[in-house]
Amino acid sequence: MAMSGLDIYKLTPKTNCKECGFPTCMAFAMKVAAGGVEISKCSHMSDDAMAKLSESTAPLMKIVTFGKGEAECKLGGETVLFRHEKTFVNRNRFAVLLSDAMSQEQIDAKIANMKNVDYVRIGEEMKAEIAALQYVGNKDAYLALINKVKASGLKVAYMLVCADVSVLKDALELVKDELPIVFGANSNNYQEMVALVKELKLPLGLKAPSLSELYDLVENVQKLDYKELLLDISNASAREAFTNAVQIRRTALKEQDRTFGYPSVVFVNELAKGDKFMEVALASLFTMKYGSLIVMDDMDYTRALPLFGLRQNIYTDPQKPMRVEPEFYPINNPGDNSPVLITVDFALTYFVVSGEVERSKVPAWMGIPDAGGYSVLTAWAAGKFSGSVIAKFIKESGIESKTKCRKLIIPGKVAVLKGDIQDSLPDWEVIIGPDEAMHLPKFLRTMEGIN
Amino acid sequence: MAFKTSVQKYSGSIYNLELGTGENTLALGGQNVFPFYSFDGDTGSGTKIGLEILDVYPENWVKGLKELYGSVVGNTVEWAKYVEEKFAPDFICLRFEGADPNGLNKSFEECATLAKEVANAVKLPLVIAGTQNYEKDLKLFEKVAQELEGKNVLLLSAVEDNYKNVAAAGVTAYKHKVAAESSVDINLAKQLNILINQLEVKNENIVMNVGTAPVGYGFEYVASTIDRIRLAALGQNDKTLQMPIITPVAFDTWDVKESASTEEDSPEWGCQEERGIAMEVSTAASVIAVGSDAVVLRHPRSAETIRALVNNLK
């Protein structure tokens, strides 16, 4: 159970020595309870009190780290059930499943897709970050598969899906430096499994036939003093998987029971049974509701475009709008006679407007000044999207050397800015665009005289 | 210690609402828990799935979909019958794209006549969608409502600028249901519901369309708005937010570049139709996961997938 500020205060020396940087022990205790400072800042705690406190002030859900260098991933550390309460912290990760039962062609095709799907969206790299390597029964083929992925040049974290400890020992020799996940501990093998991963502190995936058996398994593993864990939410049915995902997260955060305070693993590939669109549906569901590591059958653009977009949306700070980098964006390969459009840096506005300009097929330069990340009207009302902001941006951005066209289109909702901008930019013809982005294609095509 | 299921009880519940008539009446709402949280309580009528058809030839729809429908898309009535027989959705959403003043600007009379022909040709409940031009929709809904009196359809949607006419004509005069449309903001949703209540329209006749966005396009606002609406409705027993929610997913997901970009324009992205379905399926699954009671979809393959998802989660 989490401790209140008052509970913590009772354990402090109550001397108000100020060495912790706070004026009183009470103020310090309140801050510790709120998670704002580590209890170790107080050097006068008794060892007993310290042990009691560091346990109860630790986060309810553990952060588990794996993968090396560029491929490093963190999962868990979540503090809320709903994203409006506080940001979801560590975004879910997608893995692609490869196994020793697959043909070389199948494996090659999946690796090729993982290489192909790697792009940047609003400043974030989008790709499948984990190769889940499943042992099905042919040890030589399994070790060859691991070597093949290593040799492929993919920058991924590894997940060894295997319950056979002797196979795992050899597999780990190949990839232990990559800090992989070891998945497949169950009630029969968990002692050997823990012994295998303990030294390297590799995350261990636990699997059990039911939620209550999983709970017992976690308790047993914790008794071996091992806490780098991931919990399989079962693949018996979509209904059971969903129930378990919610129950595991709720038990940790709402019931404050750390036995289930670990990230989850969901094998969407098995639940979808080869149906690509069902895989997209389930992966979306578990992105919304508490899947931490989502295993896919494949990651092509059909799957990637919606899933990475959704994840990027859900794992954002609810108090801060998503923003795009202020600069000029070329749309439809503009040249030195293409017109210039201006809108704000609120990511949603950027996407809607750029999408409509793309749809118009009219080549154009889209200028995004720093407008505080607000929508057009909000930015205008806040004084962040004014005539002088726009004029200054045009002058300083170098756009005047990129295009000879001097048509500047502003959003219809800020038509009142026309005079201001015109005064500052006498060489430009300021044109009032439509109120709604959806009318841009018609507007642009009419302006350019295209049918 | 042994594992104990964590159960959350709420004091509020979502209103029951019925669309259509007779044997084909469709129930929405009725739950007192979050979607698929059957371990907490009653999940109500469950998620309903509708397919979109147009009053005009779907010029801008993806090629494979036009081919799938073949010649029936030339005739809205035949199209509706085909959808009912072949795909058996829970409802049909008839959208009057041809009435758009920026497009064909079809007359109210023409639209109302077509609506009646469609309503007489199918048994499924209808959801009528307008042009998203509130002035045009105001009269359009009034005329269609009059022509469809007794069919108990859902008018999608009344907005702040036209709710008085749409709700008064639709519900009060001709006994239909109305969807109150707000743009992804819990306070705006609540305010519009209260305004419609003030016209003596009861909550049992109101559905909410709280706004939508495709995944990747600000869907976090949609997710958090619906989360908060449901927490207020169930947890705080806020009666002004206890209506079922409908989300016209198809209206947006097919326009974003992931779905709209052709294979010539984005060869590395692969099949356009599959991308469109995946965007629609992902958005629908996500909006259902937070609490939308009904979704309007465009592609039958999307509807089939979402139907299977919902059945698997029951």
Which assembly state applies to the chains in this document? heterodimer
CA-atom Rg of chain B in angstroms: 19 Å
Can you list the strand order of the major beta sheet of chain A?
3-6-7-8-9-10-11-12
Structural class of chain B: alpha/beta
Just name the CATH architecture of chain B. Alpha-Beta Barrel
Identify the overall geometry of chain B.
Answer: globular
Main β-sheet of chain B: number of strands, strand sense, barrel status?
8 strands, parallel
- Tell me the helix content of chain B: 40-55%
Q: Could you say how many structural domains of chain A there are in total? A: 3
By DSSP (H or I, 4+ residues per run), the number of helices of chain A equals 18
E-strand count of chain A: 17
Q: Per the principal axes of the C-alpha atoms, what is the gross shape of chain A? A: globular
Record keyword descriptors for this entry:
heterodimer; A: 451 residues; alpha/beta; 3-methyladenine DNA Glycosylase II, Chain A, domain 3; TIM Barrel; Rossmann fold; 3 domains; 8-stranded parallel beta barrel; 5-stranded mixed sheet; 18 helices; 17 strands; 16% strand; globular; B: 314 residues; 8-stranded parallel sheet; two-stranded antiparallel sheet; 11 helices
